[in-house]
Amino acid sequence: MKIPFLGLPDHPQAKVALLPIPLEQTTTWLKGTGFAPLEILKVSPYLEFFEEETGLSPHQEIGFFTYPLEEFPFSLDEALAKVESLTSLAVTSHFLPILLGGEHTLTLGAIRALKKVYPDLKILHLDAHLDFRDTYLGTKVNHATVMRRIHELGIPILSVGIRAISEEEFKAIKEKRLSVIFAHEIYQNFPSVLRRIEDFLKDGAIYLSLDMDALDPSLAPGVGTPEPGGLLWPELLSILKVLAKARVIGLDLVEVRPIPHYPFTEFLVGKIILKFTAYMAKFSQE
Fold this sequence. Notes:
single chain; alpha/beta; Arginase, Chain A; eight-stranded parallel sheet; 8 strands; globular; Ureohydrolase; hydrolase; metal ion binding
């Protein structure tokens, strides 16, 4: 099944590919992330296509191609292999891949593909949770361990917005010298936080993994594991602007849990994609 982003035909010279990834196998609280890609694409035609801050229309300046929405294997290993394959296909087709999730575990599949192409790969990880447990509920690969598995691949990660963490993860920050910006640091001095993010983005091939629970629940209520606090809209836009100036090679937006009759979080995902691609287009013209 193919539902094009914004309801528009695929652009013949598209630079960005949307990959719907309906993965939901290890979620442990609120269920429904598997339905997110469909609902995000369904609501996207109701976005305003023109972006007022840049004065650009990303669907014209950047162009979008949407891959079909497919069923995923029941086996998690096979599902991650499929994510890896789809990401590789997008990259070899010269697209910037944007993965629409789906649970956060999918990021591991995407990173496995991108690491083969970009040896200098780095991850900007926006999240309420560190996702750095060694095991969770008896398994090594799931939404609560995904960043630890990626760290073990030797990939630098900057985690931003963390405000719910286990004791095990708290100890790992010091022991493994992890780069973490807690939510309370954002509240206290956001300009300083933004400078730290800019420093991280200065070199390397950058991948953004945006768990939507990084945002305040008043802004993004439809998530699987909501936490009070979090990034507000102006803060997120500031981060997206500095990110758009970097060498971005892919991103994902994950952990959306559709709320029946209230698709605001899905709408917000589409808005984030339009904002980010508008910033990309604007900065490429300067």
